[in-house]
Amino acid sequence: MTHCHPTLRHLWRDHRALLGGLLLMFVFRSAWADWVVVPTGSMNPTILEGDRVLVNKHVYGLRVPFSRLHLTAGADPTRGDIVVFDSPTTGVSLVKRVAAVPGDTVGLVDEQLIVNGEPAGYAAAPGDAVAGLLATTRERSPTALIESSGGRAHPILLLPGRTAPATMPSLRVPAGRYFMLGDNRDNSADSRYVGFVARERIVGRADRVVVSLDPEHHWLPRARRWLLPLQ
């Protein structure tokens, strides 16, 4: 018969409420909902560096905690969703927008997104779209536009002088795969670099900014961005 080490027994007896609570928290964060800290500007101007983003993990299917095994099918990601996924090349968690879903054709011509032969529409974004960007980004004289595609609209950012693929031949998205783009089109390691993203790699949908802290001003709160829904 095996016996639990006395130290472990005492630890469990004295702190079981705390330990049980921590275990439940980790299970909840793994399977139901979590938050991610955004360290880069690849989703500017929608998401800023220092945003803490709420990730709805069960919307695309409830998973076994700490695994990629799904217990329920859930909804499929749709064009325009902002999702968190594990990079096919590095395994690092990335936050991008779904530009095309399985069966779509997708391409770029001089920064213009074309899905299923339909070019996206573009209009100037409101003047405050670049106001919250880091100073190092504003110094690049970025252009903020509203991109409309498939009945959904959201802001994107163009950075003059950056060398990023502005034109891409039309590709068909394979079954079970998705094509991702960052809203900051000239500064994003998205499907133009990492390829199509498998459905099972998609962790969840980014629904809103929970808390935002400004890295350029001693991490002071950006209160206006707290609980901000994401387009």
Mind explaining what this structure looks like?
The chain has 231 residues and is α+β, with helices and mostly antiparallel strands. It folds into 2 domains: 31 residues; 197 residues, Umud Fragment, subunit A, CATH 2.10.109. The protein is built from 3 helices and 16 strands. The strands form 3 sheets. Strands 1, 2, 3, 4, 12, 13, 14, 15 and 16 form a 9-stranded antiparallel beta sheet that branches. The chain has a 4-stranded antiparallel beta sheet with strand order 7-6-5-11, with no helix packed on it. The chain starts with 5 loop residues before the first helix and ends with a strand. About 7% of the residues have low confidence.
Q: Going by CATH, what is the homologous superfamily of the largest domain?
A: Umud Fragment, subunit A
Give, in order, the helices and strands.
HEEEEEEEEHEEEEHEEEE
**Could you tell me the radius of gyration in angstroms?**
20 Å
**Unreliable segments of 5+ consecutive residues:** 18-33
- How much is the average pLDDT? 85
Determine the fraction of residues in helical runs and give it as a percent range: 10-25%
Topology-level CATH name of the largest domain: Umud Fragment, subunit A
CATH architecture of the largest domain: Ribbon
Q: With helices defined by DSSP (H or I, 4 residues minimum), what is the helix count? A: 3
How would a textbook summarize the main sheet? 9 strands, antiparallel
Structural category:
alpha+beta
Report the top-level CATH class of the largest domain: Mainly Beta
